Structures are given as structure tokens and as C-alpha cells.
Amino acid sequence: MTTKIPHLRWGIAALLFFSTVINYVDRQALSVLAPVLTKELGISNIEYSNILTAFLAAYTLMYVGSGFLVDRWGARLALSVFIVWWSLANMSHALAVGVWSLGALRFLLGLGESGNFMAAFRVVSEWYPAKERALVHGLIQGGAAIGAIITPPLVTWIYSLYGWRPAFLITGGLGLVWLIFWLLLYHSPDKHPRITDAERALVLADTVPTAQASSVSWRQLAQYPQMWGLMAARFVSDPVWWFYLFWLPKYLVEQRGFTMVEMGMLAWIPYLSADLGALFGGWLSGRLVARGKPVLSARLTVMLPCALLMPVSLAIHHAPSRAVTIALICVVTFAHMAWKTNQNTLTNDLFPKHLIGATSGLLAFGTGLGGTLFIWMTGHVVQGYGYGAIFIIMGLLHPVSYLITRRFVRQPIAV
Fold this sequence. Notes:
By secondary structure, this protein is an all-alpha fold. It has a single domain, classed as Up-down Bundle (Growth Hormone, Chain: A), CATH 1.20.1250.20. It contains 20 helices and no strands. It has helices at residues 8-41, 45-73, 75-91, 99-113, 115-127, 130-162, 164-172, 174-185, 197-204, 210-213, 218-221, 225-237, 239-246, 248-255, 260-266, 269-290, 295-309, 322-350, 356-385, 387-408. Helix 1 packs parallel to helix 3 and helix 6 runs antiparallel to helix 16 (269-290). The radius of gyration is 21 Å and the shape is globular. 54% of the residues are buried.
């Protein structure tokens, strides 16, 4: 007989956490190495911005494509394909010789990486009741922050020993190791041979009936204002995280006088703050739901103070010391990730389970477009006006996003 695993869904949550850690290590390796790599290959700020844009353009396009693949293949096969693709693409960065080759390799990396989150949305809908979804989303977003935390010291250490090319080879290999554990542990809850009867009953309690599930298509969902409201809100607020992920190491070295070693030792702190924000934001809204607060109201209750904290960004570039700079950035990353955890959970709260992959893909396409445009713009703004203008813009985005959410996201879609 197959041995049952108590609380299996939390083991699966751990796998989603680690896949996201690896996802962020692979995408952020370039930003950590950027001060050295851009100098060695003769890459300007605008060219660096274009390279990042290549990644985000592919990432955005595949949000929709990967969402459909998740719905067609299921989370097990889809996530396996995604992680193999992006791991090999990251390892191939070691072959880069200039702007065009690096841009092409970033494009390939972007084609695979967005699938991690589309598959995770599907898993959350299949495996977790409403009161646990925000916490699991917090763990997933926490995985992003942990990946960002460990990447600066890890990649800087590898670089100091072997150079920047082996850093891509080593970090890219992590996903292939993770794949073994995923294939051994993950199946859908209705077919899993090692889930207990009690946990299966808990997990499947909210499943959409088959007849109901077949009556609505994703094309119909695109007619609802909730879809466009969430897309617009995420279009506005998501670019903030892309800036801190891709530009922070470069900013600290070039504008705040950090050496590569100092950056590697200290750049992880804002990402730790983001991790705490993700866990806190998910936990707090989950507690509010458990106490009887309506689900959407609970998410918005947590999101409001986060939005009000984000204008702290306006003071970052003019901070009197490097310590104050790091502290202010930590406030911003904490608030942003607490916000993002609840904003992402709204997808699960509003839309039917069987369309989560496609719905998440459509939403992420719009928001990824916002990130792509913002990152492309960043290089030009930094080149022409300096970093101060970027920090001012970022300080205003979340309050605007909150107003959009309040206007359009009012009730779940009844299907």
C-alpha cells in the first residue's frame, strides 16, 4: 500500500516556495552581475534597459501562453516543462558575448519563467480552501523574496571564486535538481495516491461542479469589469518590484558608492523585508477571513495601508546616508509585497477554479506589459534625468492602483 502523507498540501506549498526561489535566483543573477558584466561587455544604461525589456517582453507574452498550457496540461507537466526550459536558458547566459546575444538569451529565459506563477495559481486553486489561499500566496511571494535575498551573496561569492560565466551555470542547475522532487510528490488532489481521506475531503470541498465548470469560457470572463479592473491595477503597481529586482544592485554600486562585495553583503536586506511583507500580508488577510470578514473586504483592508506607505519612495534618492537609503527601501519593499500577496489572491477569490490558469495569464499579460514599458522607460529616464525621477514615479503608483481596485473589484464572478 502507498503510505499516506499527513498535511500533504503543505509539502506541495513548500515545493512552490522553492520553485519560486529558484525562479528568482535565475532571473536576478544578471542584475547582481550587471555592474561588472555591463562594464566588461561595454553595455550602456539604455542597452541594459533594452536587455531587461527583452526578458520582460517574452515573460509577458508567455503569461497568456503558459496559462493556457497549464489549463491544458495540468500543473504537474506544465511546471516541469517550464523549469527545464528556464534553467537551460539561464545556464546559456554563460555564452553571452555582447548586447544582442545577452538580449536573445534573456528573451529565452523570459519565455519559461512566467509559467512558474501560472502553474502556482492553478495549484493554489486545486489544493487550498479560501482561508488558506492568501497564506500560500504569501509563501510563494516569500519565495520570490528569499530568492532575491540569497542571490546577491550567492552570485557574488561564485563570481569572486570563478567569474561571472560559471555563476550562470551553477544557478541554472538548481532547477533541474528541484524537478526530481516535484515529479515524485505532485499530483492533483483527486488523483493523488498519498493524500489522506480527511485532507482530500477538505481540499475538494470547494471544487466547482463539472456541469457548472463547462458552462463558462475565458472569453466570457473577459467581459467582466473585475477582469479589466484587476489588470489595470496590476499594470500600475507591479513595475515597482521589477525595478528593485533588476536595478537595485546597479543603483547601489553606481549611485550610493557600494563596492561589489558590500553590495553582495547588504543588497539582500530589502528583499528580506519584502519576504516578511509577503508573509505578513497573507497571514493578516487570512486571519480577517477566519474571523468572518468578507474575503474581498479582508484583502482590501490589508492593501490600503500598504498603498499609503509607498510614497516613502520619494525620499529614497535624497536620503542622507547609505543606511537610511537601505532602511527606506526596506519600508517600500515590505509594503509592496504585502500588497502584492493580497492583490494576487484576488484572482483566486474572484474567478472559478477551472479557469484560473487562463484568467491569471490574461491578467498577467496586461500587468507584464506595464512592467515591460516601465523597465524600458527606466533606462531612458536614468540616462536623461537620473534615478530621482524614477523614485518619484514609483511613490505614486500604488495609491492609484488602490483606487482602481476599489472601483472595479467589488464581488466574485458568479458562474
